[in-house]
Recover the amino acids of this structure.
């Protein structure tokens, strides 16, 4: 049965990681990888996670299956974290959260849910969007289109074009948004723009889906939930996919959740039962370790405060690096304006380089990034930023 299969080309990011690992140049820089890095280039565990894992080891008594919803305390804590305890939708019993294997798992479950609920639905995502969105939704049979988002010329949001496009959408359409720290372009609507988007969703009747992979890494935990909260106050039906990979630094533990808001309590229960049905047919039962750790953290005043503080350190470092990089480039004599780096947020920004320039960075300077010139700002540190700017000047011929 496998005789017709040929090896697929490696995923661009995984291929880049392998090429970087094999490069003997001591000055090499990996700007492609999508994980947070500290000033030493490491991706450490958070202290609150280490502490909660100790508590878990001391208190757990069984490894028997979890039920389909997963760790109940995790689901409850994530729901309250993203919507706020005072959420009307929550009080009305219209919200359900089900733990998933990472944010990607939540997106895949969302895709399966859409296929069961309304198979002819069309999904609209920003142009550009996370590369895996483009594979995942069509892979689950959901047809996908894009709406205008990023203006490469000015490295800013095409808000008017986005609004025009959203005004063409209606019932039967699902519109996907990034809650914060847009991957790959680093640009988010501002609070006034989110309000306008939520108003359009309400009037047009499409279903917003919000992917929240970086909550807490743009402006703060509460602030980064703004879009979800505005939608949940105005729209009858919503789908949220959240991830604890980045903000709890629990990448490999695969901690995520799908949260739905339905028009009433009865429908919310129905949707939850469909989610359990689709996950049962997929991976049967969710994993326990990561969500149990997050459950412990979010239900302990001390560990929760520690998490907020550790998350703040990561956020401040990323925002500080953005400012430093944009100021240093401006001071280096490079004529092109890179001040947009400081105005964007999260780990990613497009440098606006050609594929040829990206290849020169790699071949001549051992600086690795994907062909789109998306860089992970968290990869910079005191030892490599100046070297990067020198290389940038050279490939820009300035
Ligand atoms: C936009 C976006 N959504 C979802 C995810 C998925 O995260 P997870 O690792 O939790 O599956 C990522 C991870 O890079 C992402 O960038």
């Amino acid at each position: 049965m496998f005789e017709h299969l040929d090896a697929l080309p490696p995923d661009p990011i995984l291929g880049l990681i392998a090429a970087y690992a094999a490069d003997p140049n001591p000055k090499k820089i990996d700007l492609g990888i999508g994980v947070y890095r500290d000033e030493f280039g490491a991706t450490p565990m958070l202290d609150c996670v280490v502490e909660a894992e100790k508590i878990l080891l001391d208190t757990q008594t069984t490894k028997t299956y979890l039920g389909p919803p997963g760790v109940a305390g995790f689901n409850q804590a994530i729901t309250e974290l993203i919507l706020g305890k005072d959420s009307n939708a929550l009080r009305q019993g219209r919200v359900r959260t089900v733990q998933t294997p990472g944010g990607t798992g939540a997106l895949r479950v969302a895709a399966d849910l859409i296929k069961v609920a309304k198979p002819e639905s069309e999904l609209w995502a920003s142009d550009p969007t996370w590369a895996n969105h483009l594979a995942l939704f069509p892979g689950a049979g959901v047809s996908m289109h894009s709406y205008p988002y990023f203006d490469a010329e000015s490295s800013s949001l095409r808000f008017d074009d986005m609004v025009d496009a959203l005004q063409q959408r209606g019932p039967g359409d699902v519109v996907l948004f990034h809650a914060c720290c847009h991957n790959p372009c680093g640009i988010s609507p501002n609070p006034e723009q989110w309000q306008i988007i939520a108003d359009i969703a309400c009037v047009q009747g499409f279903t917003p889906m919000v992917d929240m992979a970086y909550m807490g890494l743009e402006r703060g935990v509460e602030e980064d939930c703004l879009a979800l909260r505005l939608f949940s106050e105005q729209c009858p039906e919503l789908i949220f996919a959240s991830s604890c990979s980045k903000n709890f630094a629990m990448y490999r533990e695969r901690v995520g959740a799908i949260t739905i808001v339905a028009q009433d309590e009865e429908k919310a229960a129905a949707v939850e039962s469909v989610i359990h049905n689709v996950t049962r047919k997929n991976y049967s039962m969710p994993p326990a370790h990561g969500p149990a750790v997050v459950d412990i953290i979010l239900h302990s005043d001390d560990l929760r405060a520690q998490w907020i503080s550790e998350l703040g350190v990561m956020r401040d470092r990323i925002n500080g690096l953005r400012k430093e990089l944009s100021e240093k480039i401006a001071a280096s004599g490079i004529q092109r304006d890179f001040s947009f780096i400081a105005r964007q947020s999260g780990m990613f920004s497009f440098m606006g380089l050609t594929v040829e320039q990206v290849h020169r960075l790699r071949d001549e300077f051992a600086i690795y990034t994907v062909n789109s010139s998306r860089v992970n700002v968290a990869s910079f540190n005191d030892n490599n930023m100046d070297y990067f700017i020198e290389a940038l000047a050279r490939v820009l011929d300035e």
Notes: The radius of gyration is 21 Å.
